[in-house]
């Protein structure tokens, strides 16, 4: 039963685009208070400012499928660091639902997959990085 196999690359691209869009929303919330109010005033020269910059720039590159593999690898690491620094406590390390780290874990593994699989057929990488 491989009825979706012909669409694998397109589905990969759609998952990449949807994930990048959700990731960008985290950055716009931190940086601009949109679509929800930020939890704190953003200092760009802080760890939260660096996270917002990575979410905005990295998310946009991922959305376009440009430099997909290296960008996804960096963002995967960012999300792993976010989970271990801000969510995983000694008492609830294995329970991301309890420590509100489930999105960080999911982003980390999804981005790790993009680092390995690439951006799919709808990525700009395919246009600018064609091999002859």
UniProtKB/TrEMBL annotation:
Membrane topology: Multi-pass membrane protein
Main location: membrane
InterPro entries reported in the protein's UniProt record: DoxX, DoxX-like_oxidoreductase
The entry's keywords: Cell membrane, Membrane, Transmembrane, Transmembrane helix
Transmembrane intervals: 44-68, 104-124
Domain of life: Bacteria
Protein's cellular compartments: Cell membrane
CC annotations in GO: plasma membrane
Family as reported in the entry's similarity comment: Belongs to the DoxX family.
UniProt name for this protein: DoxX family protein
Lineage: Bacteria, Pseudomonadati, Pseudomonadota, Gammaproteobacteria, Cardiobacteriales
């Amino acid at each position: 039963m491989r009825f979706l196999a012909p669409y694998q690359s397109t589905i990969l691209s759609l998952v990449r685009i949807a994930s990048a869009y959700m990731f960008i929303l985290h950055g716009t919330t931190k940086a601009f208070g949109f679509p929800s109010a930020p939890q704190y005033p953003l200092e760009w020269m802080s760890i939260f400012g660096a996270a917002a910059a990575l979410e905005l720039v990295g998310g946009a590159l991922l959305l376009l499928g440009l430099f997909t593999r290296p960008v996804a690898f960096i963002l995967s690491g960012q999300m792993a660091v976010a989970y271990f620094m801000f969510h995983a406590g000694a008492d609830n390390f294995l329970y991301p639902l309890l420590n509100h780290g489930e999105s960080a874990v999911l982003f980390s593994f999804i981005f790790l997959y993009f680092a390995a699989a690439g951006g799919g057929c709808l990525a700009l990488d395919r246009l600018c990085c064609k091999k002859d």
